[in-house]
TrEMBL record:
Cellular component terms per the entry's GO annotation: cytosol
Cell division as UniProt keyword: no
Provenance organism: Lysobacter soli
Protein name according to UniProt: P-II family nitrogen regulator
Keywords: Nucleotide-binding, Phosphoprotein
Gene Ontology BP annotations: regulation of nitrogen utilization
An example molecular function term from Gene Ontology annotations: ATP binding
Record bears the keyword Amino-acid biosynthesis: no
Organism classification: Bacteria, Pseudomonadati, Pseudomonadota, Gammaproteobacteria, Lysobacterales
């Protein structure tokens, strides 16, 4: 089992959710986050004063998948989140040692 964590642009969430659903991902967790990478923030003008926005709003999308579904989920997520511009985000993949469904006690792939 793998845990996929993706940092994406907020307006891409619906496309990412639909793409993951189409490849069989049964659930995702979304968290509003702020951060920066190569984009390094930007300047904005508010009431005539210029200020720097260092941390940009992003979404962190997390989902657990079986290893057999990993490549399809990664491809779907990347294609749905891509705009082709700096700041599209990143995808991280980690191994999951154990998954437990709290309600039923199912383990690992059965708990997904």
């Amino acid at each position: 089992m793998k845990l996929i964590t993706a940092i994406i642009r907020p307006f891409k969430l619906d496309e990412v959710r639909e793409a993951l659903t189409e490849v069989g991902v049964s659930g995702i967790t979304v968290t509003e986050v702020k951060g920066f990478g190569r984009q390094k923030g930007h300047t904005e003008l508010y009431r005539g004063a210029e200020y720097v926005v260092d941390f940009l709003p992003k979404l962190k999308v997390e989902c657990a998948v079986a290893e057999s579904s990993l490549e399809a989920a990664l491809e779907a997520l990347a294609n749905a989140a891509r705009t082709g511009k700096v700041g599209d985000g990143k995808i991280f993949v980690q191994s999951l040692e154990r998954t437990v469904r709290i309600r039923t006690g199912e383990l690992d792939d059965d708990a997904l």
